[in-house]
Amino acid sequence: MSTDIIKDNATKYSGEVTYHEVNETVLSMLEKPTFGWYVLLLSCIATWVMGFGCWISMMIYGLGMTGLSHPIMWGVYITNFVFWVGIAHSGTLISAVLYLFRAKFRQPIYRLAEAMTVFAVMTAGLFPIIHVGRPWYAYWLMPIPNERALWPNFKSPLLWDVFAVSTYFTVSTTFFIVGLIPDIASARDKAKTKFRKILYSITSLGWTGNARQYKNYVAAYLIFAALATPLVVSVHSVVSWDFAMSIIPGWHATIFPPYFVAGAIFSGVAMVITLVIPLRKIFKLERIITDFHFDAMCKLILLTSGVVTYAYVTEFYVAWFSNNMFERYQFWFRPFGEFKLAFWGMAFCNCMAPLTLWYKPLRTNIAYLFVMSIIINIGMWLERFNIIFTSLARDFIPAAWGGYNFSWIDVGITIGAFGWFGMWMTLFIKFFPSIAIVEVKEVIEAPVRDPHSSVHHH
Amino acid sequence: MQKKSLTILGQNDNVASEGLSRRSFLKVLGAATATTAVACADKADQIIYPNVKGDATQIPGLPSWYSSTCTQCDAGCGVNYKTYEGRVVIVEGNKDHPINKGGLCAIGHSALQDHYDPDRVRQPLEKDSNGVFQPITWKAAYSKIKQAIADDSKRAFLTRPLSGSLEKLVGEWSTDVAVEHYAYEPLDYAQLAKATAAVYGAEYDGVPHYDFSKAEVVLNFGADFLETWISPCEYSRDWAKSRKSKKPVRVFQVEPRLSLTGANADHHLKCKPGTELLIAKAVLKELLSRGKNNLPASLLGELEVSLAEITIDVVAKLSNVKSEKIVSAAQRLAEAKTSLVIAGGASAKTNNEYELQVICALINRVLGNVGQTINLDRLRKVKSDFQKVKSLIAEINDNKYSVLFVDGSNPLFTIPSDYKFGLAIKKLDLVVSFASHLDETSKEAHLILPASSSIESWGDHQPYAGVSSLVQPAMTPVFDTVGLGDMLLKLSRSEELKKFSEFQDYLKAQWQTIHAGAGVAENFETFWKKSLERGGYFADPISVAQLSIPTSVIVTAKLDIASFDSTKIQQKSELVLLPYASVKTFDGRAANRPWMQELPDPITKIAWDTWAEINTKTAAAKKIKTGDLVKISNYYGELQVPAYVTDHVDENVIAVPLGNGHSDFGRYASSVGGGNVYNMIPSDKADHLQLFTTHVELKRALGKHKVANTQDVKDSDKQGKREIARTSYIETKVPGAHDDHHDDHHGHHEPAQMYEQRIHPLYQWGMVVDLAACTGCSACVTACYAENNIPTVGRKIMTEGREMSWLRLERYDDGTSEDLQISFIPAMCQHCQNAPCEPVCPVYATYHNEDGMNVMVYNRCVGTRYCANNCVYKQRRFNWYEYELPEPMEMQLNPEVMKRTAGVMEKCSFCVHRIKDAKDHAKDEGRLVADGEVQPACVKSCPTEALVFGDLNDPNSRVSKLAKHDRAYKILDHHLNTQPSVSYLDNLKYKA
Amino acid sequence: MKGQKVVVGVFTYLDDALKGIQVAKDNAKDYQVYAPTYVPALVHAVDSKRSVIATISLIGGICGLIAGFALAILTGLDWPMRVSAKNIVSIPAYIVVGYEWTILFGALFTLNGMLFLCRIPNIFRKVGYDPRFSDDKYGVVIGCEPDQVDQIKEKLAHTGADEVMVKEGL
User: What is the rounded distance in angstroms from the CA atom of residue A61 to the CA atom of residue B252?
Assistant: First the structure.
């Protein structure tokens, strides 16, 4: 990492934070859990257990329990799947892409973003299984050799999904854990209880941080970043192909991959903000996560919001320009049809509301950002709802048109997913450093006895 | 399950002794299959009864067929029963039968569910002192009746119109045991018969045979001859034959409410209620003035006077039908070489129906249609006599009677309550019912002797001269029931009846005379066997009818519109209640069959419900929207049904289908409320039951009612420019001539293909649907349910849009009530060559087989439902739940088609199992499958042969010829290049 | 680490640590440098050669690409089912699989390569390691024979080490 960057990175901190301070602040997060933490954890568990109950009853009585019906064969579950995969994205973006771009604001937030990625993918991964008619056979989508030589169909976008998502999960998890190793070592050396001592000794794999380790570690880290970056693009492109590869008006569009990727980053960054703000408050990380970082994330939001807005407009333009009656009806139906609320909700949350962030003071107004980040997440959920539900509700054969029946099971499972995600997050922040100690130190000027010494100008 | 099997075994025990006759053998098998059927129903443990002794006629796993006759209505269509191991699984039309020639209507198919109805009475019942029915033995039941008929008390026997040997037996038995026999059905044709006799000669007291295939123009006053009128399968077939020809019949339909028949007519004249007579008179006058007057002079003079006041304009004003339409109808009739004028249906059942029929008969006579399109040698005798039934009821109320026998016709439901039959039946000492259900009538009986269904018993039917068709049992009775004939023989006293041990013998005795009359060389036994195989004995009557000069025909001179009763209606209401027979429930007899309840009504697309069709203006005035509950009331009763707002009924008409609103009868019938429409009808002096006779009040009732309507989404009945069901207009285009406009849609020039097209070496199965012949009767839908074990899901699940039908009859209504553009299109899986559903399945659960069909592997399906999303025709159905059948309905399940479990996708398979059978047979004989050898259930069922199936590889097959027809097109193909295997032929309509 | 003894120099300042490294370089073949974070200068001072990890990743990526396409094509041929009018083997559809596995295998190879090159997991053998090294101190650990200990202690002390310790080597 070139030295000048180290310099101006360092200046980003209010006053000079020392190595030790960083260690202390971050590791203090791992201290004895408070009552509040237990409450949070238990409520998360309770929530997903409730959701799980809904799923069980659905498996017992049949998928009729959901609001799905002919012709809306995909619905809330696929919406949730796309939503969570989208959330996952910004993690990889922040950790990998911004690492390659040497973005200055990355270090303190990327660990959290990565954790979010891993847990979001773990959540997203549940939904295809919840969604299928016979979950107990879902493994048939895996290329598992069996005596009858039955193999999956590699021409199906769903199978691409299986590969894209599983690869994404594996790689981002690896990236995540690799990043954790040195920090766990720090935790190990400061661990107070025997349990944690053992836990960290094992999970740090005996990391010592000697020169040779750093040399290969940093090289490998760079490569991981380089490998994860194309995933950011590919995974959501593949997800979007589930729709774009089909023949349904409103789905069958070449714009989908970039549109989905942008949307994913959009929602992901918003989710990072949603998570970082309370964490920063609770663990008093103001000196490490500063306004500068929020400002930078807001700019990313403004950019991606612009992209999705453009995509929405393009869809309508193409529908009109194609002069295809089915497309045209579909895009008339979205703003004025049965699901118009979802459409206008999306338009407000994703296109209009974020515009306020052009105003700088709002970009650093933490309370406002928190609300905004939640608005954006709602908006992005609605976007997927729009794409999936409305397109299916009105396609080619009017006689087969139909609607969606609301169902509490859908709601229960959707909420349950947040519990599941929350549980992992809660556990994570208490057991592992959720800010990258070593990397934050990296951007702090190394202490030197003689300021004029030339160590920094090798 | 086990319990049931054992009880059936119980029966077998006493059978075993009498050796292994075919019947007893069937009984044993019945037990066996009762359990194997359960196996299909996916139950855990069953007892399997091994089929120890083989039987040449019964090869397990191979079907055996029995010819018989459909007894669902009096049309007398021939049917074939397909049986496996002694249980009937499929009912199909008998192609050798002169009446239906292979087709069968929806109700005909649903006979199976009447037969396997879980709500059937399972053994003789007697009402105990607390009014609860207790099972008794047949012996006991018989002896009770024997006592009852021992004394000289006055006794009556009320049945639906009977025919053939059973009618004869009932007659003989009635005299034998001193019982007066009355026949009754609500929708009878007495007025038509009377008018025929009056105009054509007294000897022709009956319903003549109409030939729609010969007519060039048909003027029809409300007769629903494509739905339920007299002999719908026969008429549909003839009508379609003409529609498919180079010169299709042009139909003018005059009625206040758009019926299915009206929707298929070229010109729909929506008239004010009860003004048909005026229009008929106007047409007659117009014709006379055009010199069509070959009538006896005396009669002409009479008409001269009575038609004096009739002028087109007055009539047009009163009937609210444009005068030019009336004139053009008259003109077309005058110009046509052959034509046909008929009246009937619910909207004709007014106080002036007789006169209307007379005028129609006169018009036919002046146009010289008798002998052309009207055949008087093939009269259908009308046996229902409402006049006599009324007097019977009156006498019962005067306590003149003490015993009443009643069959399964459920008169208490169909005779309006105002006729006081309900009171009467309570006054009797003994009411014996031979009904198969605990319906409204049999609930009132003291003794129920359940009669076997026509699938379980012997009988015959003579609809008209030259057609004697046989009813034979295709399986052992499902429950402990006995055929009506057998019961009567058991209950007879006279020696000449006693000498017949079984009704079968009596039947044979009657057929001895038919054999004699037939004058055929072969001896009786061969004749009898042949007739059984053929389904009956069919011959053309030789004599030619001679028209006699009518003594006098009363044609009132009045400008009279039918009068409608408005007794004690608070504020004067112009609204008239029009109860009509639907293809779902007919007069009510089909109400307890899930298939029929789940079948969307062709016009309204409503299932599992009864409804009120209300004109848009009327509804707007009362702030009623489709789906709102409305209260329709008069002095006699009230209905609470969901509204269906449409332009297609007159502003003063509220049309409600007959047949629902049962209080008893069975779980399915009583699940559909709304109230019994019959009970709204006031009694009057008339000698026939006037259904279209009462004014009603219309109010918006509280609450909404979620109606199961398969096409209730906004705009879902408008196809716009999508060209799903296409129509070409005959004025603009001679059928068969080339039409540039649709050129590219006809697939004449092939679009560029990304992949090289697959060649299917042996077969390439395909279908062609001729929309010009499709009436929308929905028989194919029901046939598909039966063939493919498609579950019925019930109202609630249907309102969620989760019906499982593999064949959707789409109804589009793009026009207005003035310029009607209603099209029906049966849509099944199109078996695309570039099927969008196939590549998206991640597990190859659906793929393209070697015969170019799109096949579905249920066991492999994980249920991602991607295929259904990607099916542009939305033909895939998903099992949202596991659907169970109440026993013994599972006995109907077709063993050739597996039952699908929850979480699995399914769809039309072109009846792949039938194709497999045909291919196997052909292979055994070392040949290819012949054209027409294999027919999917829908194709087989179609009364009009609108559907044709076959091998597209064979250039000479009917299907590949039709697929090259100039009217042929493939839905959406020119948009999406899906290359369906199903082609459609444009519907044909005459421009107004 | 060779030698029976190790001399551990604990440094607060980077420039001092660099001096310490110089001492190590001059006096011993075998030494180890610990740092609380990645400091390019430090690592450079110890070893300026490029890591070989990139090569390993490349190999992994190539294997993945081949494996991905092979899987799709061979399973297709093993169970030849026609869908729509598509070919049994339709390469364009298989690109995704190849692409994903390229990355997957690349990542897994990199992971294993890194673990190997960093000699981890290695939970128990941390000669001369001090918990402060993961906090805010630099450490220079020099392996030597008992007779050299004093001299090296001396030299390290002069570089400005906060503390110099002597520990048992192997």
Answer: 52
Q: Which residue in C37, C43, C125 is closest to A441 by CB distance? A: C37
* Nearest neighbour of C83 by CB, restricted to B753, B757, B848: B848
What pairs with residue A300 in β-bridges?
none
**pLDDT score recorded for residue B656:** 95
**Statement: residue C94 has pLDDT above 90:** yes
Percentages helix, strand, coil for chain C (3-state, rounded to 5) are: 55, 15, 30
| Dihedral of the alpha carbons of B714, B707, B265, B965, in degrees to the nearest 10 | 60
How would you classify the pairing of strands B638-646 and B612-615?
Answer: parallel
ipTM: 0.91
- At A448 the pLDDT is 84
Contacts for B11 with CB less than 8 Å, ≥ 6 apart: B27, B31, B480
Mean model confidence pLDDT for chain B? 87
- Residue in this structure with the two tokens 């010199």, named with its chain if needed: B291
User: For the residues of B199-222, what is the DSSP string, one character each?
Assistant: HH-TT--SEEEE-TTT-SEEEEES
CB atoms within 10 A of CB B699: 14
Q: What is the distance in angstroms between the Cα of B747 and the nearest Cα belonging to chain A? A: 19
pLDDT above 70 for A99? yes
B122-178, pLDDT tens digit by residue? Answer: 999 999 999 999 999 999 999 999 998 888 889 999 999 999 999 999 999 999 999
Region of B477 (left: φ > 0; alpha: ψ -120 to 50; beta: rest) is beta
**B708-745 pLDDT, tens per residue?**
999 989 889 999 889 999 999 887 444 444 444 444 44
* pLDDT for position A455: 58
* Residue located via tokens 């042009």: B250
Strand partners of residue B950: B766
% of chain B surpassing 70 pLDDT: 89
Phi, psi of B479 (to 5 degrees): -120, -175
> How large is the greatest C-alpha to C-alpha distance in chain C, in angstroms?
83
The label of the residue with tokens 């390439």 reads B764
Q: How many CB atoms lie within 10 A of CB B283?
A: 28
Q: How far apart are CA B119 and CA B793, in angstroms?
A: 18
pLDDT for res B568: 62
- Which one of A25-34, B673-682, B933-942 scores highest in mean pLDDT? B933-942
State both tokens at B61. Answer: 């796993």
Share of chain B residues as helix, strand and coil, in percent rounded to the nearest 5: 30, 20, 50
Please indicate whether, in this complex, the C-beta atoms of B758 and C85 are within 8 angstroms of each other: yes
Q: In chain C, what residues touch A452 (CB-CB under 8 Å)?
A: none
What pTM value is reported for the model? 0.90
Helices (H), A12-97: 19-28, 35-61, 76-92
Q: Which chains touch B (3 or more CB pairs under 8 A)?
A: A, C
A-chain residues near C97 (CB < 8 A)? 154, 159-160, 163
Tell me, letter by letter, the H, E, C secondary structure of B455-505. CCCCEEECCCCCEEEEECCCCCCCCCCECHHHHHHHCCCCHHHHCCCCHHH
Peptide bond into A145 cis (omega under 30): no
Number of H helices, E strands in chain C: 5, 4
State residue B117 phi and psi, 5-degree precision: -60, 125
Q: What are φ and ψ of residue B431, in 5° steps?
A: -115, 120
Q: Say which residues have a Cβ less than 8 Å from residue B724's Cβ, sequence separation at least 6.
A: A397, A398, A399, B810, B812, B825, B827, B971, B972
Residues 900-929 of B with CB under 8 A from A: 902-905
Using the predicted structure, report yes or no on whether residue B371 has a pLDDT greater than 90.
Answer: no
- For B863, the token pair is 């249920």
What lies within 8 Å, CB to CB, of B950 at 6+ separation is: B765, B766, B767, B931, B932, B934, B957, B958, B959, B960
